[in-house]
Request: fold
Amino acid sequence: MNDEYVLQLQHITKEYPGVVALKDVSLEVKKGEILALIGENGAGKSTLIKTCSGAVIPTAGKIVVNGKTFTSMSPQLAAENGIAIIYQEFNNVKGLSAAENLFLGNPIKKGIVIDKKAMEREAEKAFNQLNIKIDPKKLVGDLTVGYQQMIEIAKAIKQNARVLIMDEPSAPLTSAEVESMFKVCELLKAKGVSIIYISHRLDEIFRLSDRIVVLRDGEYVKTLITKDSHVEELIHLMVGRDLTETYPARTDCINRDETVLELQNVSGNGDKDISFQLHKGEVLGLGGLVGAGRTELAQMIFGAVEKTSGRMFLKGKEIHPKSPRQAIDAGIALVPEDRKRHGALLTISVKNNINMPTYPKISFLSVIKSRKESEVATYYQKNLLIKTPSIHQIVKNLSGGNQQKVILGKWLAANSELIIFDEPTRGIDVGAKVEIYTLINRLVEQGKSILLISSEMEELMGMSDRIIVLAEGKITGELKRDSFDQKTIMRMASAV
Ligand SMILES: Nc1ncnc2c1ncn2[C@@H]1O[C@H](COP(=O)(O)OP(=O)(O)OP(=O)(O)O)[C@@H](O)[C@H]1O
Ligand SMILES: [Mg+2]
Reply:
């Protein structure tokens, strides 16, 4: 036994019908270290960490916790042995308070009655320990995602977790929330807790981790000491090749002056007096902080929420989209930010998901339809590098990032004139990001118009021809490509 390690995964293999998700993968976690786990979409990261909680039972291999060997885990075994996992969808109950969630399944009782006061006191202590400011009485549903995540971390620590595993914890957070989460991670590390941290954001990996384990195609590639490694090396190990151009160049389409979408003093859904024009073959970036009203604007254009005043024109014709269906028929597509909730139908196939928006268009002639559908699905599977054994695979069985690619493919296949992308590359690995940018470029070259919402400043500046910035539901500035500047955009974003 090696007592340097709190957790060891030894020769883990996981096979699904037609898919080998993990092939003989081993890794070790030291006491009080932050170990980053990285790899492309579908590399096997989530599957590997799920073996630690029993959510996935390995086909072969061993899990060694503090010297005790297991061939598989269960949630109870994991808890007893000090392992806690924070998944992307938290298991919290929105209608209960922060304190009640912290003690979920394990309430403090006075006799047979639940002692609410005591739970609130204890919750306060637990939050204080992690330097997080949450009112224990507050309903979890009223807290931001960042705070909900903090409660999950507090819960793990309260249950004496010695190894905390986090699967893409930063994905749903604002940058301020990411900072708070990092502080909590550092604090836990100082207390000797070990952390396994999964993320596609390499800057976070370099800031936070001590060592990095790289997976590729279900296989272990290498372990690196973070301070001795370099981002290019990391990318090379992840994708197996060098990535040269992050933002591929595009050629302008013809007739670029033609206006495709025009908003005149549009208000509603929290936005006020929004006016702008979007041209043919243009990528218009929407900048702003989380909560600035960008998603809200997208929802109005897409008809998911009706505007209360102002006018909207598509190719010079006034439109009043009252439902997404109407917007889709008018030639507008929206790739939503919250893809789990609005995006994919998890229990149907890749092929059917991708073809979903076009169903009313190709409804009769069913023989041609099926062949055409397979063609379309195969095209996007190839171009978006969707990792799946076939287009007939059920979307639920794909990795998180690959599910997102299916939803992207679905809206690209809709062949709309105007496509609104809300955070298109969230949860997407570095290699596939470039493919998505290339696809966006191809659309623009064909004369489609793009409205791009992105919280990644680099992406926004790298992809947009023009950026308008929103703050508190109002437009606070506009920049053309040659005057893009991070500081100016930030200043506009925090205006008002
Ligand atoms: N229940 C399942 N049935 C079939 N295949 C599965 C199942 N669960 C996972 N897989 C496959 O296992 C592979 C690894 O998936 P996993 O979710 O671990 O990837 P990941 O590294 O977490 O990717 P991402 O960055 O996209 O989240 C994928 O090819 C996925 O399609
Ligand atoms: Mg995953």
The chain has two domains: 5-239, 259-493. Residues 16, 19, 21, 39, 41-47, 387, 397-402 surround adenosine-5'-triphosphate (ligand 1) (CB under 6 Å).
